[in-house]
Amino acid sequence: MTIIRIVAVGLSAFLTMPAPVSASPIRAVAPYVPCPAVKPPVAPPAAPSPPPVGPADQAVGGASLATAGLSIPAGAPMAPAVTATSWLVADLDSGTVLGGCGPHEHRTPASVQKMLLAAALMPHLDPTQVVEVTRADLQDLDPASSVMGVVPGGRYSIESLWLGLLLKSGNDAANVLARVGGGTAGRQGGVRAMNDEAHRLGANQTHAVTPSGLDGPGQYTSAYDLALIARATYARADFRRYIATRVAEVPAGPGRSGFSLTHDNTLLDHYPGTLGGKTGFTDLARQTYVGVAERDGRRLAVTLLGAETAPLGSLGEAAALLNWGFALSPDASVGRLVTPDEKKHDQPVAQVKAEQHGPARPGRSMSWVAALGLGAAGALAVLLLAAPWRRRAARAAAKP
Known about the structure:
Elements: H1 2-15, H2 55-58, E1 70-71, E2 86-91, E3 96-101, H3 114-121, E4 130-132, H4 135-138, E5 155-157, H5 158-167, H6 171-181, H7 186-201, H8 223-234, H9 237-243, E6 247-250, E7 259-262, H10 267-270, E8 274-282, E9 286-295, E10 298-307, H11 313-327, E11 335-336, H12 368-398
Antiparallel strand pairs: 1-3, 2-3, 2-10, 3-11, 4-5, 6-7, 8-9, 9-10
Helix pairs in contact: 1-12, 3-7, 3-8, 5-6, 6-7
């Protein structure tokens, strides 16, 4: 009976163990640290609250990025204080994320969204193709918005339109490129291609409504997503050539005169190593920026959203963040930029206790490991309990 008691005690202890955690993964949430911030001299206008970010999307690229606050390497110098409400600095070649503020938070993109248009359509449009501008391409543009200067009925090469898009942030060029790239679906087909490309890149917080970045309902991106998009575009030699061009000439055509395009990104000539950048602004988005600079063999990308014009403006804040990034050790890291060919949400990550809200709930179902263990324990108990009776039956059968 001693063996039976041991089995009974063990089985009782097994049955009273806490229920296993549900098989659904619990994503990591990094402890919240406020981002260093500068209060602008003039408060920005009120804006609607952005949609929340799901736990799985927050953890893309690493658990340390799952925060609405600051994420920098342990022991690193404090990041500079800026007005931007979210930002990210990453190594464009290795994909290492050096730091960020609210990296996955939804923000309004403004014209930096034109980089997504380039990522989606540049691989598919022949730069030598000449296309005609229609009145529909221009009729819904705000007269005060930035334009390249195309005219209805004018014929322009795709390459000239890319230069107008990237040098002058031409909303007119964006509409024409999206229409041509959208095929039979027109401009909306181009926007769908942008959203398809964002999905392919793993830019889960990005949703395009307009090809130009002019505000539209439900249009958003994130600092992390912009770094993914920048990595895709800067991988192309033609994009790198366009974005680094200071001045381009658009030749005259039938019924129209030629004109010059001058790059509106002043960092090209004022921040050493700048390879190019894209600015943006709307009343809702405030100032936005995506840029890349090279120093000592490292190419760093900086993305920022929600900046104000003072005291530094988006370009000054980008320069400060790049200086901070270049000063870090090459092996400093808080995460990584995911690649299109990997699964984004296939690895469960334990949640950080500091960010748990309430006690953990037991899982509703038992894992196969626990079920197997319980079945084995039950079978062993049955065998051990049956053993004495089998021995008595054997002795009885042996008697004459």
